[in-house]
Write a structure and sequence with these properties.
This protein is an alpha+beta fold. It is built from 17 helices and ten strands. A hairpin with a 5-residue loop joins strand 5 and strand 6. Helix 15 runs parallel beside helix 17. The radius of gyration is 22 Å and the shape is elongated.
Length: 355
């Protein structure tokens, strides 16, 4: 705990925010650890089976909603956000109509954010420690059972929109979140008001109608879940709607009016690697596993594995314009050792009325 060396709570909190901005975070907030309402919403979401195969959401439910169970003695949560949009969003919107090219969620085009955010938060914690005596803390960024968005909302970083993502009135929603659980009793911030109003742009534009009601997302229909978290055969009824999205989906953010204020990232590590922001489906489908592992080293994409990568691209090729090149590329994978890949390749060939 803080001793005589410490700043008072208000001074320390303001210093933390300045230090955070110096480390590249766009905003720092402070939350308490009361998450009763968020826990109720999580319970209803789980009871609706909207989590699909993500059993870890249910398994660690109590840890998510009770920070002191995850990190004993936690009194405050320092929340942080960092922009990741690598280009103007209009470029991404145009790419959705280029059916020969692969659409990869903009957050995944560069370096895996988990380590970068956690390292920056560790630096922030050390700056705090240099100003006071040692204190208890742990840093997170989508790396443990943490209710990131509710904590960010409570700390004033934005409000949770109808698409269930956090929105900042001045900066949109294309940003990563991170947290420091700490035993420091810091001055908390106030939540901001919700500014979604009567807008339903995210609901209307969702390709698979995964936003089943305002603030309710059925992950089982969400393209991000299907192409990243889900490891099985993607429901045939949803494959056409996936279009050329081979890793994640940004539609609910791309068409959100608040993202007219979204900023291009200042972090070079989040800029596209290996031309993946404009890569063709055919070129990516021709990667062997060693190429996949080499090209995605240090990136979030690698987490889905090679078979899911091929599965996803097969669907996108099935949705592309029919051509000899597309058909020949698909046929080369008919002898793939993975039954999962072969099944999706066969479906794709059927879309072009040929086997």
């Amino acid at each position: 705990m803080i001793n005589s060396k410490a700043l008072d709570s208000v001074e320390l909190t303001e210093s933390i925010k300045l230090w955070g901005q110096s480390l590249g975070f766009q905003q720092i907030g402070i939350s308490d650890i009361q998450l009763d309402q968020a826990e109720q919403r999580l319970q209803l979401w789980l009871e609706s089976n909207y989590h699909g195969t993500m059993e870890y959401m249910k398994r660690h439910q109590s840890l998510r909603a009770n920070p002191q169970q995850l990190v004993p003695d936690t009194l405050s949560v320092i929340t942080a956000r960092m922009d990741y949009l690598p280009e103007d969003k209009t470029i991404a919107i145009r790419l959705l109509d280029e059916t020969d090219k692969a659409y990869i969620s903009r957050y995944a085009l560069g370096r895996d954010y988990h380590k970068l955010i956690r390292k920056r938060l560790q630096k922030l914690a050390r700056l705090i420690q240099d100003s006071i005596d040692p204190f208890g803390y742990r840093v997170f960024s989508d790396s443990a059972p943490v209710l990131e968005k509710p904590l960010a909302e409570k700390s004033g970083l934005g409000w949770i929109g109808k698409h269930t993502n956090l929105i900042n009135r001045h900066d949109g929603s294309f940003f990563f979140l991170g947290e420091i659980y700490t035993d420091l009793a810091l001055k908390t911030d106030s939540p901001v008001s919700n500014h979604c109003g009567s807008c339903t742009a995210c609901i209307d534009v969702c390709p698979t109608k995964a936003i089943v009601a305002p603030y309710q997302l059925d992950a089982r229909r969400c393209i991000s879940y299907l192409t990243i978290e889900f490891k099985g055969s993607i429901p045939v009824s949803l494959r056409k709607d996936i279009g050329n999205r081979i890793y994640g989906c940004d539609d609910c953010q791309l068409f959100c009016p608040w993202n007219r204020y979204a900023n291009v990232t200042q972090e070079n590590d989040f800029l596209p690697r290996h031309g993946l922001d404009q890569a063709t489906l055919i070129s990516l489908f021709e990667w062997d596993e060693s190429t996949f592992l080499k090209r995605t080293e240090g990136m979030a994409i690698r987490r889905i594995g090679y078979q899911s990568w091929l599965r996803n691209i097969a669907i996108a090729l099935g949705n592309s314009v029919t051509s000899d090149a597309v058909i020949d590329t698909l046929r080369k994978r008919l002898d793939n050792s993975s039954e999962l890949v072969r099944e999706h390749v066969n479906w794709a060939l059927q879309q072009h009325a040929t086997l």
